[in-house]
Amino acid sequence: MSNGKPTSIKTSEATRDRLRLLAQERGTTITELLDELAQSRLTQAEQEQRALEAAAELGLDYTEQLQQAGQSAWDKIRAHQGGAAAWT
Predict the structure, then answer these.
(1) Low-confidence stretches of the chain (pLDDT beneath 70)
(2) Which one of 2, 3, 24, 41 counts the least CB within 10 Å of its CB?
(3) CA 45 from chain center: how many Å?
(4) If you average pLDDT over every residue of the chain, what do you get?
(5) Around Cβ 33, how many Cβ atoms within 10 Å?
(6) Is residue 2 within 8 Å of residue 32, measured between CB atoms?
(7) Nearest CA among 15, 47, 50 for reference residue 33
(8) How far apart are alpha carbons 55 and 49 in whole angstroms?
C-alpha cells in the first residue's frame, strides 16, 4: 500500500503492542494496518463534499439545518458504537 519513504511515529508501548496484535490477527503489518486506517477515514473537507453530493442526489438543499440534522444523526450512531466509529 505504502509507496512513500519510511518514517516513524512515536507512540506508547501499549499502543504499539495493540497495533502489532491487530495487524497479526489480520495477517498484515503495522504499516499496512495504519495505511488502511488512514485511507478508510475522510477528512472534514471530504465529509462535507460527500454530504453536499448526497443532498444533491436526493434533491435537497444543503442548508445549515440539514447539516445539523446529519451531524446529530452521526453523533447518535457513534454513541451506539461506544463513542467511536467502527473500524474493521
Answers:
(1) 1-3, 83-88
(2) 3
(3) 13
(4) 88
(5) 19
(6) yes
(7) 15
(8) 10
Tell me the pLDDT tens digit for each residue of 29-45. 999 999 999 999 889 89
Cell of 59: 434533491
Contacts of 50 (CB under 8 A, 6+ apart): 42
- 87, 40 contact by CB (below 8 A): yes
Q: How far apart are the C-alpha atoms of 73 and 79, rounded to whole Å?
A: 10
All three cell numbers of 11, joined, read: 507512540
- Residue whose C-alpha is closest to residue 39's, from 1, 84, 11, 86: 1
The whole-number pLDDT of residue 83 equals 55
Cα distance between the two ends of the chain: 17
Give the number of other CB atoms < 10 A from CB of residue 56: 11
